[in-house]
Structure formats: C-alpha cells, structure tokens
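STRUCTURE:
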C-alpha cells in the first residue's frame, strides 16, 4: 500500500483523529526524506515515520516497530470493519491496528 492510500484511509475514517506532515513542517532540518502520520484509534496515539526503504511505527510513544509493508484488512483477527496490518516481512504481521469498527450491540 502506498503512503497516499494510508493517508486517504485515515483521513476518511470517522473514528480516527488524523494529522500528516513532512520534516520541513516539524523543523527537523532533514528536508523531505520522510513523512510523518499521526493518528489516534480507540484512545491510543500512533505515529508512522514513512521512509523510502524502511518505516517505523510508534504506539503510545513506544517503539519503534519496523515495517516495510501495510495492508488494509477487514475482519481478521478482531472482526473489525477495517484494520491496518503492518509487516516486516511478507508472511507475518508485526502489528494490527483497528481503524474502523462496528458499534457494539447492547443486550
């Protein structure tokens, strides 16, 4: 999945608080080498640092979790409307984040 696709998913998902900027906007002095996506899901803050060959995920300020690929998955493993699955290699996800969910039915 491309960075632009992740940005569109997060921007257009009603349950997500989302922000995006590059390092010029953070005044880190290293130009547009990487991009930063900040978002919140279910009260947990996430930060994605998107680089060309390797990216990093921080969860609640803890990390990094290294990843190279992201996929949009719908129900596995938590029956969510939409998950983002992060992969370090091709076969096993290193992190699954629920970004859209069904309202719970009260009995």
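SEQUENCE:
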């Amino acid at each position: 999945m491309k960075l632009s696709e992740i940005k569109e998913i997060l921007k257009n998902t009603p349950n997500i608080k989302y922000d995006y900027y590059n390092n010029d906007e953070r005044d880190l002095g290293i130009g547009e080498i990487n991009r930063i996506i900040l978002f919140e899901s279910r009260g947990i803050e996430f930060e994605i640092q998107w680089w060309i060959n390797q990216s990093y995920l921080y969860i609640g300020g803890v990390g990094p979790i290294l990843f190279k690929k992201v996929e949009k998955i719908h129900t596995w493993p938590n029956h969510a409307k939409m998950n983002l699955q992060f992969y370090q290699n091709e076969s096993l996800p290193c992190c699954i984040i629920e970004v859209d969910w069904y309202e719970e039915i009260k009995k």
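REMARK: Strands lie at 17-22, 35-41, 44-50, 55-59, 62-67, 69-73, 82-87, 93-100.
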